[in-house]
Specification:
- The chain is an all-alpha fold and 198 residues long.
- It has one domain.
- The protein contains five helices and no strands.
- It is globular.
């Protein structure tokens, strides 16, 4: 029988690989709305559409696999995980990563490839995917700290405060929930206003 740690490693590789593909493709999709000074990096319209589709599918696959990675990672932790600051932060950053990727996917599904034609929505999609990927890499690094006491972010000159947790009050949690719901509502309103202009 396959152990939870082995299953978790396989799921994480699929998740990180898919989301890395999504971010790289999204960076190239900047060319839909912004001119690139380097001719070697300039892509044709068909290639940019392919990048858009590949980025979308990478984000979709990674988002679908992320809950499996989260739960298999929890099962693979040895000992009692209760009271672990690292594990708490892993869940916190996992929620942020999943929220950012979901926001990216909702925008892409609602507006289609036309989302890249506007400079504002183009930048919004790219920034959202970069923030989502940053949260995802942070989650993976916390997992490395838990299992091996090392991570790829150890190479960075700075480190996020993942060894300490911040317990928020219920009012602050409710406020963050309202902000999240408002963000989804704003995205739908942007879509509606663009449809009316067209």
């Amino acid at each position: 029988m396959v152990s939870a740690a082995t299953f978790h490693a396989a799921i994480v590789e699929i998740t990180i690989g898919s989301l890395t593909l999504a971010v790289i493709c999204n960076l190239f999709c900047l060319q839909f709305a912004f001119s690139i000074p380097y001719d070697r990096l300039r892509l044709s319209e068909n290639m940019l559409l392919t990048m858009d589709r590949a980025g979308f599918m990478g984000a979709l696959l990674g988002s679908v696999m992320m809950p499996f990675a989260i739960f298999s990672g929890t099962l693979s932790v040895s000992g009692n995980p209760a009271g672990s600051e690292l594990l708490y932060n892993k869940f916190l950053y996992s929620g942020l990563a999943f929220g950012f990727w979901t926001s990216y996917l909702i925008g892409r599904i609602r507006m289609g490839s036309e989302i890249w034609k506007s400079k504002k929505t183009n930048l919004l999609q790219v920034i959202t995917s970069i923030l989502a990927f940053t949260m995802t890499i942070t989650v993976a690094s916390i997992g490395g700290k838990i299992v091996r006491n090392e991570s790829i972010l150890d190479l960075m000159p700075f480190w996020l405060p993942i060894n300490k947790t911040v317990t928020t009050e219920p009012i602050i949690s409710a406020l963050l929930l309202i902000i999240g719901i408002s963000s989804i509502f704003i995205m739908y309103k942007i879509d509606y206003s663009i449809d009316r202009k067209n």
